[in-house]
Write a structure and sequence with these properties.
With about 280 residues, this protein is of the alpha/beta class. The chain has 2 domains: about 70 residues; about 140 residues, OB fold (Dihydrolipoamide Acetyltransferase, E2P), CATH 2.40.50. Helix content is about 40%, strand content about 20%. It has a 5-stranded mixed β-barrel. Helix 1 runs antiparallel to helix 3. It is rod-shaped and about 150 Å long. The relative contact order is 0.16.
Length: about 280
């Protein structure tokens, strides 16, 4: 049986601890990626279900001051009202994958018949890195009917609306606070306006319904963990083999030493016998 006492050395104990940390970390990262995959599939199922439904009135889905439910995201709704251009919000630092450009979104509250405002993202406007250079198309004046997809409010500091009505994330809650308007929970990603304006911002389409790279990332992380275990096992085997080789290398030396002692003993015995014989002959 190989001598494994080297495993209790400081170097090997630290090596083992490092491998344990790597294995736990890669297992957690792989599990996290598979969790993201499950969330992506769930979100895609909601989009697929809601995009097939006919548009409904906004009041049947959204309510003032109430968070829009996840199950209703990407549902098409319609609303009629008048755009409040005095409270137009600029959603800054938008990078559109659809148009491969940087720019802004123009966001305008639509005041419905009962006075409740529906936050409408009218679409993307490209800029040259400065929002002041954006030529923002004006919304239709007078009464307009909009159709769009329900989107959920963002959260965190990015949704804060500054005094100039700029934001880095979109939330009906923070827009309501900044403008003093009573808003529906959630907001609308515009699909169409009636009457249509002469010039419109670039519209956004539905999200990509692919599952993304999460499955392969999860497998990759788990593979790294297995590779760490295999590498540790191989190095342990190699070190045990080297240690065994060192032990075997001492055996010939011990055998040679024993033969040398025997030769010396034999020579000493012959020498003693010779001395005794000479002593006998002298007498």
């Amino acid at each position: 049986m190989p001598d494994l006492r080297f495993l209790v050395s400081r170097r090997w104990l630290l090596f083992f601890l490092a491998v344990v940390i790597v294995v736990i970390g890669t297992w957690w990262l792989g599990t996290w990626q598979f969790g993201r995959l499950a969330d992506r599939k769930s979100d895609n199922a909601i989009v697929r279900a809601n995009e097939q439904r006919t548009p409904v009135a906004v009041g049947d889905v959204l309510s003032p001051g109430v968070t829009a439910p996840k199950k209703d995201e990407w549902l098409l709704v319609t609303a009629t009202g008048t755009y409040d251009t005095t409270h137009m919000v600029t959603w800054r630092y938008r990078n559109s994958d659809e148009y491969d450009e940087a720019g802004i979104d123009t966001v305008v509250p639509l005041i419905t018949a009962d006075g409740t405002a529906l936050v409408v993202d009218r679409g993307f406007v490209a800029t040259d890195g400065d929002v002041e250079l954006a030529d923002v198309p004006a919304p239709p004046s007078g009464t307009v009917t909009v159709t769009g997809y329900v989107r959920l409010d963002g959260s965190g500091d990015s949704t804060r609306v500054d005094p100039d009505l700029n934001t880095r994330g979109l939330s009906s809650v923070t827009i309501g606070r900044a403008t003093g308007l009573t808003t529906y929970g959630g907001w609308l990603q515009l699909e169409s306006e009636d009457p249509a304006p002469a010039t419109s911002p670039k519209p956004y389409g539905l999200p990509d319904l692919g599952n993304g790279p999460h499955f392969f990332y999860g497998i990759q992380w788990w593979f790294f963990g297995l590779l760490a275990i295999f590498g540790f096992g191989y190095l342990l085997w190699d070190e045990a083999r080297v240690q065994a080789g060192r032990g075997d290398a001492t055996r010939p030396a011990r055998a040679e030493s024993e033969r040398s002692r025997r030769r010396k003993a034999v020579r000493a015995a012959y020498q003693a016998a010779y001395e005794r014989e000479r002593e006998r002959q002298r007498k």
